[in-house]
Design brief:
alpha/beta, Arc Repressor Mutant, subunit A, D-Maltodextrin-Binding Protein, domain 2, 3 domains, ten-stranded mixed beta sheet, 14 strands
């Protein structure tokens, strides 16, 4: 059924003429006549008896009027309700985050979000599993590492650079290496999921493979960070997670021209069209909260090696990620 036709029908009866209803609703009179004719045809009954002087409801018209009034009231309520959603975010937002990124980067953004939008219920799932936002009913996934092959939108948040850090106590005791080669003479701590015995560092167009003396090799971020804080050695740590320690001067970035790019962090969501207000508000706040105090975070282009990898390895017939830097 055409809900607009039901609304037009009630307005005709209220105002007493097709012309008055057309003027009140700001639509052409022929459109009003066409809508009522189509409504009568769809119902298979005559609703209004027309004459040059007056309108008269038929018995079926009187019966339908009761339904039309209820339909119009329900439609108006729905429109008002969803219009209010555009004005102030409310409802539920479901977010999935890897535990480490959540604890060190997203949690403070979430607490700010909850203060800004008290009408929103925030559901946060910490998981290291690769979720599907559609299948798993998640609004936003904060993702780091290899992107899933799916029909999703991936909004870039930050490059996940790793840089060299040491504590003031270590620097005071052992000094700062003046060049990348001097790392061979320092105590180092390896943080790597593969527990490899080397670093590959980049500076502009130069790459260097190093095998310093690792006094610790671990895949646990907290263990590596605590060892560096205690002055046990120099470690290659993710910049995005080091903001608080660096701001408090608990850890110092050394040899700042050298770094390792471990990919990027993205917010993944099912579609950029008709984003729920609470989801759009979260993505906007996330965008404004990027930590730019230590290193520039430039959005990747299609020449970005990570994007090139996915474009190269995806077939046109396969599901794909759309890299979206502006979701408006």
């Amino acid at each position: 059924m055409d809900f607009d036709a039901a609304k037009i029908f009630t307005k005709i009866i209220e105002l007493g003429s097709f012309t008055s209803a057309a003027q009140h609703l700001n639509i052409p009179k022929p459109t009003v006549s066409r809508k009522i004719t189509s409504l009568e045809e769809s119902l298979g009954v005559r609703l209004i008896e027309r004459s040059t002087r007056q309108l008269r409801l038929t018995p079926n018209g009187e019966r339908f009027l009761q339904y039309a009034l209820q339909i119009t009231e329900i439609v108006d309520d729905v429109q008002r309700d969803f219009q209010s959603l555009k004005e102030e975010p409310r409802g539920i937002i479901k977010i999935a985050i890897s535990p480490l990124i959540g604890e060190l980067f997203i949690h403070r953004i979430l607490t700010e979000y909850m203060k800004m939008y008290p009408q929103v219920q925030v559901h946060v799932q910490h998981t290291a599993q690769q979720l599907d936002p559609i299948k798993d009913s998640v609004d936003v996934i904060i993702w780091s590492g290899s992107l899933p092959k799916a029909n999703l939108i991936a909004k870039w948040i930050s490059n996940s650079w790793q840089m060299l850090y040491a504590s003031p106590s270590y620097i005071q005791k052992h000094g700062v290496p003046s060049s990348i080669d001097e790392l061979e003479n320092h105590q180092c701590i390896q943080l790597n999921s593969d527990l490899t015995d080397h670093w590959i560092l980049h500076s502009k167009n130069t790459s260097k493979k190093l095998s310093p003396k690792f006094i610790m090799n671990t895949n646990n971020f907290w263990l590596a960070r605590d060892a560096v804080l205690l002055g046990k050695g120099i470690a290659l740590l993710p910049v995005l997670l080091m903001g608080e320690d660096a701001r408090k001067n608990q850890l110092i970035n050394i040899l700042p021209k050298w770094m390792d790019n471990q990919g990027a962090i993205y917010a993944i969501f099912p579609s950029r069209k008709l984003l729920a207000p609470q989801v759009r508000a979260f993505l906007d706040l996330l965008d404004k909260s990027k930590d730019r105090s230590l290193i520039s975070h430039n959005p990747p282009s299609l020449q970005d090696p990570n994007i090139q990898f996915y474009l190269k390895n995806m077939r046109l017939s396969s599901p794909k990620i759309i890299f979206d830097f502006n979701y408006d």
